[in-house]
Design brief:
Strand content of chain B: under 5%
Largest interface: A-B, 23 and 13 residues
Shape of chain A: globular
Oligomer: heterodimer
Radius of gyration of chain B: 21 Å
CATH class of the largest domain in chain A: Alpha Beta
CATH architecture of the largest domain in chain A: 3-Layer(aba) Sandwich
Order of helices and strands of chain A: EEEHEEHEHHHEHEHEEHH
Distance between the termini of chain A: 51 Å
Radius of gyration of chain A: 18 Å
Structural class of chain A: alpha/beta
Strand order of the largest sheet of chain A: 6-7-8-3-9-10
Chain lengths: ~260, ~260
């Protein structure tokens, strides 16, 4: 790790109508570092990374990538920043109207203007690197299992060798063995690219495997952050309850009466 | 007081929808006019909208022309005006029934499909995925559909005009006993370029409306299957109503009396 600050988020706020989802989030990630943001369902983890990448616009606060403010940029400048990013969506978000190889090569062809044949060769290479053969490239996303779709989505996220990769719940919906395979692939691909990564998850096995640093999001704020080694002795009741998956503790799950 | 509150709420909601649609239309037109153009996507949409709609539009046109000849005969024979049947058929088809019926049929077939496809892409995060791959969804998804619909609807209407007139011809010759030469002479004697051109202008405008409503409703769909279903219904209903409204406006512009 070089220690250079790659991503810095300060005082980030985001609301949807009367629902105040993010209430002043502060995080920073260094070059080559892997930050895992943990937190319960509906705490705003996805909203946080969608604001950082620019799918959503924050109401207030600052997002800096390589020291440059990106929260209000658009057009060509936004495009040049998008080239730095890769994103693995929770459900894969593969395009079902085009074959798998074209899904993986999509960014290379459309955004980088690469010739289709060359982009196809790179796509097959990337599919190989996530353990899928060239024959899979000819299939469509509806022909693949959930685990295979996640691998293809990972291949697409790393296809253009991004500097920063976001992983949105990478192991959700997978069996423990496939989840572990995906975790290993994430670690391996990130190391190979020397990429800075932000992962959001509530899977603690995944957190322990992927993270250099862990941050916990609760009620729209980061309530604890530190290295993964310190997570088990954080002294924070919220973190302790979450990592042990206990129903007893300060985090109350509101169950609505009908 | 309650009544005023409800009225105000409805009015504000109307303004919100109008504003959203206006912004969406402006973004779509901008994306359609200025490069980059996705030629493959445009050709695929032209095939989808034009070629695959031929059977339904052709069948509608032939039966409409046939029934028009039959109805005109039963009415006109009461005051010995049978010789006007050919003119009535050709003018009704080229000015009104060709574009309107083709528009409504394509709205049902293509508008619904566009809303369902884009709606599904929205709820499965495929549109967000386009953004993360540095691809403008307006240029990649909406521009090609608008261009294809504006070009192919007039082509469909030319074919519908020919088939519709032929439907009238078949009934008039084989059932009503008209002479082919006289019928064809009566058809073309009263037909002016303006009659056909007004129909083609209508077709282009209807193509724009169908694609815009399909894309708008799909793009803004929320939730899961129910949201996509609602978007599909809204796309067809709104496109059909707008087609009928604009049909009147364009007729008024071309054939204003007085």
């Amino acid at each position: 790790m070089s220690g250079k600050e790659k991503i810095k988020v300060s005082g980030l706020h985001k609301s949807f109508g009367s629902k105040h989802v993010l209430r002043g989030v502060d995080i920073s990630v260094n070059q080559g570092e892997s930050l895992v943001v943990i937190g319960g369902s509906g705490t705003g983890k996805s909203v946080l990374i969608k604001n950082i990448i620019g799918i959503m616009n924050p109401d207030k606060g600052s997002i800096k990538i390589d020291g440059e403010e990106t929260s209000r940029i658009s057009g060509g400048k936004r495009d040049s920043f998008m080239h730095k990013f890769g994103y693995l969506f929770q459900g894969g978000a593969l395009f079902d109207s085009i074959p798998i190889w074209e899904n993986v090569a999509f960014g290379l062809i459309q955004a980088h203007g690469m010739e289709r044949k060359k982009a196809r060769d790179i796509a097959i290479q990337k599919l190989n690197s996530v353990g899928l053969g060239a024959d899979v490239g000819e299939l469509f996303s509806s022909d693949l299992s959930g685990g295979m779709q996640k691998r293809v989505a990972l291949a697409r996220a790393i296809a253009a060798n991004p500097e920063i990769i976001f992983f949105d719940e990478p192991t959700t919906g997978l069996d423990p063995i496939m989840a572990d395979i995906i975790n290993d692939l994430i670690v391996q691909c990130s190391k190979e690219l020397n990429a800075t990564t932000i992962t959001i998850t509530h899977d603690m096995a995944s957190t322990r495997k992927i993270a250099d640093k862990v941050a916990m999001l609760y009620e729209g704020k980061i309530i604890w952050q530190g290295t993964k080694e310190k997570m088990d002795n954080s002294g924070n009741k919220f973190v302790e309850q979450f990592i042990h998956g206990s129903s007893k503790g300060p985090i109350e799950i509101k169950l609505q009466d009908h | 007081m309650n009544f005023l509150a409800v009225l105000g709420k409805v009015f504000l909601s109307f303004l919100e929808i109008t504003g959203k649609l206006a912004i969406f239309t402006a973004n779509s037109v901008w994306a359609t006019i200025f490069p980059r153009y996705y030629i493959r996507a445009i050709l695929r949409q032209m095939l989808e909208i034009g070629y695959y709609s031929l059977p339904v539009v052709g069948l509608t046109a032939i039966f409409t022309g046939a029934v028009l000849a039959l109805q005109s005969y039963t009415g006109f024979s009461r005051f010995n005006a049978e010789s006007s049947i050919a003119s009535v058929v050709v003018l009704s088809i080229t000015r009104e029934l060709g574009p309107v019926l083709a528009g409504l049929m394509v709205a049902g077939r293509v508008g619904a499909a566009m809303a369902a496809e884009i709606g599904t892409m929205r709820v499965t995060e495929q549109i967000d995925a386009l953004f993360t791959l540095s691809t403008n969804p307006f240029k990649y998804l909406i521009g090609p559909r608008l261009i294809a619909a504006i070009i192919t609807l007039p082509l469909l209407v030319v074919i519908a005009d020919i088939i519709g007139v032929y439907g009238g011809y078949l009934v008039s010759i084989h059932k009503l006993g008209f002479s082919p030469g006289t019928y064809l002479r009566n058809t073309f004697d009263f037909l002016e370029a303006k009659d056909v051109i007004s129909g083609l202008v209508k077709a282009s405008v209807f193509g724009f409306i169908i694609a815009l409503m399909g894309c708008y409703n799909g793009f803004n769909s929320r939730g899961g299957a129910q949201g996509v279903g609602q978007a599909t219904t809204n796309a067809v209903v709104s496109a059909s109503i707008l087609i009928l409204c604009f049909n009147y406006v364009i007729t008024e512009l071309f054939f204003a009396v007085g």
